[in-house]
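anyone else get weird line breaks when pasting these?? whatever heres mine. first is seq + tokens for prot A
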Amino acid sequence: MADLPIRFGIIGCAEIARKVSRAIQLAPNATVYAVASRNVDKAANFAKANGFPPHTKIYGSYESLLDDPDVDAVYLPLPTSLHLKWAVLTAQKKKHILTEKPVALNVAEFDQILKACEENGVQIMDGTMWVHHPRTHKMKEFLNDKERFGQLKTVNSCFTFFADPDFLKNDIRVKPDLDALGALGDAGWYGIRSILWAADYELPKTVTAIRHPVLNEAGTSGTLHLTDFIIPYQEHEASYTTSTKPGFDELVTGWSQLPSEHTVTVDLPQEVCMVREFASLVRNIKKKGTQPDKKWPTISRKTQLVLDAVKASIDKGFQPVEIVS
């Protein structure tokens, strides 16, 4: 008999939950089992609008979902200020946690969440999707190639998006009273994670927030470039460009070594790869008695540490802030 899929409960009906719930349904080893909102009608409407299976349980409180013994794992798309309370309660209920980022308002809160997870033997992973895309692994192979790339010297990571007037007025990311980290915690998390990823998650010694971006090339022998690292232009393929020891032709009218484009085709979107990886970890804990994988919370904590330092730099007038691990 095939193993049953990991049964997810979703706490909260945020917009991002539409994308991740679709990913849960597409993942071969996961299924949407329950959804909760503080308003039962909202939860029911969310389930219907997103095509949840007819057997999906609908709850009018978060606590009710956490008390369901058949829920294996919980996806938390709640505002960051609510993560500490609900992540800890989720862990105490022995439910594995897939949480939106940032994981917490600061690393002190993060450590409380991690402590609860470790004490209760549950897996935690943050919802940074792009690191799970197969393209990311291919790019890492290029960065690790000393002949083609050389030594990493600088990384420029930029994530921008158009925000309409309604977003700038009403979105939670521009309301410090609702989400204290705002756009820094949401968009900034990606840039921080990408820099840490490129540096094999070695923490920087200091961090300085700046008012204006400084753009640089990266690598002593080559460059890696892409513009869609967070959300690929297309679900089933993603590209990146590399160049190694580029130069000009004799008359300097063109390049003697053109950059090469690499396309990675995939069967499943990156968010499904994320859910599949998380569900596999949960299955190993349930079926084989393995310990929760420390890789993902370790990476999340380092991202949180740098995020804290950037926030502190802003608060101190853009002064350098030392990273304290």
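and prot B, same format (seq, then tokens)
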Amino acid sequence: MIPPSNTVLLLLLSVAAAQIIPGSYSGCGPLPLPLLVGLVAADAMVSLLIVVVVFMCAIPRDRPTQEDGKVYINMPGRG
């Protein structure tokens, strides 16, 4: 059974799909090759930047070691 809110969405989607003329496009022509190459290169650079930032944030940093002289009450073998 489809929930009522999804039924309204499906009805609106079918009405919108009926308004589209088959074979028509939104006016977007083919992209020139230099523009397409530039978009792919920019996408690759942004993806590489995201990977580098995530990697830099994920590597462990030099942190001071915990003191082993503490007494851990609920941890067997640590005190």
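btw re prot B: DSSP finds two helices and no strands in the chain. Residues 4-58 form one domain.
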